[in-house]
């Protein structure tokens, strides 16, 4: 069976944790569509176009991975692209409550769409986009958290050289 999965998120910016989930999903599903949520919050570091550009460059080695963006409800986007699976990464128990609520709400909105959780690899379990931005804003090292391309762009935004 050919299963299309959508991997939604803010990706502001993409981290090694996100890439781990994308790479592993690409081995499980026949097509993975990474979907950047547009205009979710006001204080984003990167525009949607910048996040799309980073994700496309970072995933270009995977023939079955595409990157797009969506506005509005995730399940409506899943329907439009024919995805019956939503992939979400779980880093720790603290993620669970929000993810549980979102998975159930999405199921209520679209019964044909299932959420599949992937445990984020142990070495990435402490990484989040917000932590990356915070560390970078104080001039800290983010080499182990994001790929070089993202690191350059984060420091480019902050106006520091690292
Ligand atoms: O990376 P994030 O910020 O944890 O991703 C959250 C995201 C974008 C997946 C979630 O906020 C979302 O799906 N937003 C779209 C609006 C929507 O469908 N909301 C209802 C979910 S219950």
- Quick one: biggest sheet? 5 strands, parallel
Cα distance, first to last residue? 46 Å
Q: What is the N-to-C order of secondary-structure elements (H for helix, E for strand)? A: EHEHEHEHEHH
Oligomer: single chain
Shape: globular
Helix run count: 6
Average pLDDT level = 95
Uncertain segments are none
Q: Count the strands?
A: 5
Q: How much of the polypeptide forms β-strand, as a percent range?
A: 15-25%
Ligands present: 4'-phosphopantetheine
| Helical content class | 40-55%
**How are the strands of the biggest sheet laid out side by side?**
3-2-1-4-5
Q: Please compute the radius of gyration using only Cα atoms.
A: 15 Å
Task: Please state the structural category.
Answer: alpha/beta
Question: Explain this structure to me?
Answer:
The chain has 162 residues and is an alpha/beta fold. 43% of the residues lie in helices and 19% in strands. It has six helices and five strands. The protein has helices spanning 16-28, 48-59, 74-81, 93-109, 129-137, 148-158, and strands at 4-9, 31-37, 65-70, 85-90, 114-119. It has a five-stranded parallel β-sheet with strand order 3-2-1-4-5, with helices on both faces. β2 (31-37), α2 (48-59) and β3 form a beta-alpha-beta unit. The longest helix has 17 residues, at 93-109. It is globular. It starts with a strand and ends with a helix. The mean pLDDT is 95. The structure holds 4'-phosphopantetheine. 4'-phosphopantetheine (PNS) is lined by residues 8-10, 37, 40, 73-74, 102, 105-106.
């Amino acid at each position: 069976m050919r299963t299309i999965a959508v991997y939604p998120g803010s990706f502001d910016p993409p981290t090694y944790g996100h890439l781990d989930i994308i790479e592993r999903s690409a081995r499980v599903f026949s097509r993975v569509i990474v979907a950047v949520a547009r205009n979710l919050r006001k204080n984003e570091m990167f525009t949607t176009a910048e996040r799309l550009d980073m994700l496309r460059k970072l995933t270009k080695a995977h023939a079955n991975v595409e990157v797009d963006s969506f506005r509005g409800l995730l399940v409506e986007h899943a329907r439009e692209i024919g995805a019956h699976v939503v992939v979400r990464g779980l880093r720790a128990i603290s993620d669970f409550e929000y993810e549980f609520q979102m998975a159930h709400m999405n199921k209520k909105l679209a019964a044909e769409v299932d959420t599949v959780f992937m445990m984020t690899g142990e070495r990435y379990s402490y990484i989040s986009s917000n932590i990356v931005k915070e560390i970078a804003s104080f001039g800290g090292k983010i080499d182990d958290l994001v790929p070089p391309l993202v690191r350059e762009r984060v420091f480019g935004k902050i106006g520091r050289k690292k």
